[in-house]
Design goal:
This is Molybdopterin-dependent oxidoreductase. Helices cover 28% and strands 31% of the residues. By secondary structure, it is an alpha+beta fold.
């Protein structure tokens, strides 16, 4: 019996290692998806390839230390438009009470009023960045980060973005 147990131990270690690798692969794959839901006509779950294929813009913004960086990403308004959020000419009356709640992997959440994301209302473009200074965002920051240019404090520069939920304030 002891011989059988000794023979099985290496197999058990290999299976445990394979299970660990599989879990890591699945969790990293899940981390690249972005879910857009709530008060939208077309809820979306966008994979990394979907986001990469979307038109990107570049912008320069200063981080919390005042250092200037070049970010590349998708305007949040473009993502919300694809999901069917109320924007443009439809953003009036009760729809002005809608917000986008952006959630991170660690549970951190920030809020944006839809008018501040809409180019018909706002002069700045807020992006979901996937690159900084020409390289992908580092682990712990990416794969996606919201960048809000010219904001005095970068508290809404949320890292590791997982979802955007559009909802009414009331």
């Amino acid at each position: 019996m002891t011989n059988i147990l000794q023979a099985i131990k290496p197999i058990g270690r290999v299976l445990a290692s394979l299970s660990f690798v599989l879990i890591l692969a699945l969790s990293s794959r899940a981390q690249t998806a972005l879910k857009i839901s709530g008060e939208v006509t077309n809820p979306l779950t966008l994979q990394a390839a979907d986001l990469k294929a979307m038109p990107h813009i570049d912008l320069t913004a200063k981080d919390r230390d005042g250092k200037e960086h070049r970010y590349s990403g998708i305007p949040l308004s473009a993502l919300l438009k694809q999901a069917g959020a109320t924007l443009g000419g439809e953003l009036r009356s009760k729809n002005l009470m809608k917000v986008a709640v952006v959630k991170a992997a660690d549970g951190y959440e920030v809020l944006f009023a839809l008018p501040e994301l809409d180019p018909d209302f706002a002069t700045r473009t807020i992006v979901l960045a996937d690159q900084v200074d020409g390289v992908p965002l580092p682990q712990g920051v990416g794969p996606y980060r919201v960048v809000v240019p010219d904001e005095k404090k970068p508290a809404r520069w949320i890292r590791e973005v997982k979802s955007i939920d559009v909802r009414f304030v009331k």
